[in-house]
Amino acid sequence: MIYINNLHHAFAIGKKGEEQTVPVLKGVTLEVRQGEIAAILGKSGSGKSTLLNILAGFMAPESGTVTVNKHETSALNESQMAAFRLENFGFVFQNFQLMPGLTAFENIELPLKIKGIENEERKAAVRGLMASVGLTEVAGHYPNELSGGQQQRVSIARALITKPPVILADEPTGSLDSETEQEILELIRSLNRDLGITFVIITHDDEVAGIAHRQYRLRDGELMKGEKRHAV
Ligand SMILES: Nc1ncnc2c1ncn2[C@@H]1O[C@H](COP(=O)(O)OP(=O)(O)OP(=O)(O)O)[C@@H](O)[C@H]1O
Fold this sequence. Notes:
The protein is α/β, with parallel strands linked by helices. The protein has 7 helices and 11 strands. The chain is globular, with a radius of gyration of 18 Å.
C-alpha cells in the first residue's frame, strides 16, 4: 500500500550565498503493506521525521517517489496532496497536539466538523469511537484535565474518526511513562487487528518497534540491511 522508492533529500544550511547542502535521506526504499504495523527506527538526527514529512506530503523530496494506495503522491501538487491527506492519513504526535479550549469529545469531533458532517451523525460517530477506545467517562474533560495516556487516546481517536486507512505516528509514546506506553501500544495493536488500520510509527524505542510487523532502521539517512518482518 505504501511504496517509497529511492528517496533522496538534502537541506541547505548556512548563510545565503555560502549555503552547504547536507544530505539527510540517501536513497531510502521501503514498503508497507496494507494491514501492517511498520516501525521506522533510528537515533535522533537519522532522518526519521524528514521521511515521515515526505510520506505525509508536507515536504517534497529532492528525488525519488512515494506511492500510497496506487497514487503517486510525490507527483501531486499542494492542494491535491491536502485532499489526499485528509482522506488517507490520520496523525498521532508525541505531544498529542490537542486543542486546549475543546473538550475530549469536541477534539475528536473537530475533523468531522471540518469535513461538514451533519450534527447528529457526527455526535453518534464520536460517542461510538469514544466508547471503543475507553474514553466515555472523560468526554467532557478538557485536555489539561486528562492524564497523558488519556490525552493520547483522544488524539488517536481524533486521528481515526475520519476512518483513514493509514495512521502516521511520530513517537506516539514518547511522552508517556512505561505503564501507559504499554496501554497505548496495546490500543494500537487492537486497532490494527480489529479494524485493519495500517500504522507507520516513527520511534527510537525498540519496545515500541516490538509491536511492528515490519521494522526498518535508519542510520544517517540510509536504511540498514536486515529489515525485520513477520506476517500480520
Ligand atoms: N529544515 C531543516 N533545515 C536544515 N536541516 C534540517 C532541517 N530539518 C532537519 N534537518 C537536519 O536533518 C537531519 C535529520 O533530521 P530529522 O528531524 O529527520 O531526524 P530525526 O531522526 O527525526 O531526529 P529526532 O528523533 O531528533 O526528531 C538532522 O541532522 C537535522 O538537523
